Amino acid sequence: MKIQRLTRLSLACVATLAFVGCGKESPKGDASAEHAEHAEHDATSGSATGRVIVVETNSDANGNFFKPAEIEAHPGDIVRFTNVTGAHNVDFLPDSNPGKTGLPAPSEVLQVPGQTYDFKVTLAKGKYYFQCDPHAALGMKGHLEVED
User: Fold this and answer.
1) How far is Cα 76 from Cα 63, in angstroms, rounded to an integer?
2) CATH tag, 2-146
3) Which among 26, 25, 23 has a CA at the least distance from the CA of 40?
4) Do residues 78 and 49 make contact, with C-beta atoms less than 8 angstroms apart?
5) pLDDT tens-digit readout, 28-37
6) C-alpha–C-alpha distance, residues 94 and 10, integer Å
């Protein structure tokens, strides 16, 4: 039991250090604020892209939620889902996005604070529904509006 807790603590520390180490800290100590303006590299190819839009995944006394839950983006932007608390994934369900193509596969479950899932916006103009599968019934849903 002690080893499991130490392992979890070690993983959380490594993830936090990796997250904070990716850029300058903002005045609040949150590295995601620095990345919210511009992406330095595409998450998959390393090429320059548009801006990074940070969306936090949370679980607290108020429930399970994306912050913000309504996002506007342009092709080439990266939506970075960053786990704050809880365990969450991101799923653009085909059934909830009828007629839409190119939807990403569901993400892995983010379990460690600071863990991220980057989604490069390559979708056509329109409004897209997404959810956290474990918490969808509890209202953890959002919308991505892709603009030209």
Assistant:
1) 31
2) 2.60.40.420
3) 23
4) yes
5) 334 343 333 3
6) 37
